[in-house]
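Hi all, posting the design record for the shared folder.

TITLE: backbone redesign
STEP: 1 of 1
STRUCTURE INPUT:
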């Protein structure tokens, strides 16, 4: 199954050009190495309404299957990506975020400080990832084995049940 991804980086400094976005490109490299496509990327400031609007527009646009966000999932008052995501999703997928935190904890105790969420809007899966390139890649790697099957189920593919 070919999957189409959107990658949204949430960072005040990167959106102002004060530092390069390293996480978005790292995720894009991983996605394309799996034979999937990156349909769209964007860097936005840590602003709830901007993140919410971008996620909703992308999810409703029909050009992507999975939206990965990177950044804005910590304890800083400016970290609002989970709140924006919760405003957009129809249904939560808590097992995805739980799995990322569980595996991340094996690398660093700070992984439990992640407030990342995952969920669905229509037939699009949205997954929050940390802002660190290393952590973002480590976290999405936890989910790689289930993403194609998750999308088969979400899109009600006829053969989805055979993988159970």
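Okay, here is what came back for every position:
SEQUENCE:
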């Amino acid at each position: 199954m070919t999957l189409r991804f959107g990658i949204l980086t949430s960072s005040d400094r990167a959106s102002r050009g004060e530092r390069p976005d390293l996480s978005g490109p790292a995720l894009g490299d991983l996605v394309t190495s799996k034979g999937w496509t990156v349909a769209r990327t964007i860097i936005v400031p840590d602003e709830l309404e901007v993140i919410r609007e971008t996620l909703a527009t992308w999810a409703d646009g029909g050009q992507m299957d999975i939206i990965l966000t990177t950044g804005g999932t910590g304890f800083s008052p400016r970290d609002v990506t989970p709140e924006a995501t919760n405003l957009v999703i129809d249904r939560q997928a808590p097992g995805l975020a739980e799995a990322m935190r569980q595996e991340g904890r094996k690398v660093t105790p700070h992984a439990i400080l992640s407030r990342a969420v995952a969920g669905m809007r229509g037939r699009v899966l949205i997954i929050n990832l940390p802002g660190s390139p290393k952590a973002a890649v480590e976290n999405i790697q936890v989910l790689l084995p289930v993403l194609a099957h998750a999308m088969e189920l979400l899109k009600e593919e006829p053969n989805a049940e055979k993988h159970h």
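COMMENT: The radius of gyration is 15 Å.
Let me know if anyone wants the other runs.
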